[in-house]
Design a protein that fits this description.
Layout (H helix, E strand, L loop, with lengths): L2 E5 L3 H13 L3 E5 L2 H8 L6 E4 L8 H9 L6 E5 L4 H9 L4 E4 L4 H26 L1
Length: about 130
């Protein structure tokens, strides 16, 4: 099963996300900041990353730019920021998708499933090209 990393400083939002994901069969790891995430990435890479923008220290968009240098997995931003400029910037800087808070868990799960499906299709195409 896919492993999803949640980077979110709000404990209540993290709980909601964790509950929805675990009940759908996903493995979940949680992080409050980019610093704690980077420590974990030294040992394991997720199938998908849920990333808040307003984090302590480095914001989520800058964190995404850093991650994209070496990390190849879908990144879905989840933020209370819903202005067009922020959403466009987040997607252009490496995000694969963007959801605004508050969100419905069923919608979050659908976005995750779609991102993982695209990732799987891309992997199978690469393997076919190699053969």
């Amino acid at each position: 099963m896919a492993t999803i990393y949640i980077v979110e400083d709000d404990v209540n939002i993290r709980e909601i996300e964790r509950y929805a994901l675990k009940n759908s069969g996903y493995e979940v790891e949680e992080f409050e900041s980019g610093e704690s995430l980077f420590k974990r990435l030294e040992r394991a890479v997720p199938s998908l990353l849920l990333l808040d923008i307003m984090l302590p220290g480095t914001d989520g968009i800058d964190l995404c730019v850093q991650l994209r240098r070496t990390l190849y997995c879908p990144i879905i931003f989840i933020s209370c920021l819903d202005d067009e400029e922020t959403i466009v910037r987040a997607l252009r800087m490496g995000g694969d998708d963007y959801l605004t808070k508050p969100f419905r868990c069923a919608v979050l799960l659908a976005h995750i499933e779609a991102a993982l499906r695209r990732m799987q299709l891309g992997s199978s195409r690469i393997l076919n090209d190699i053969r």
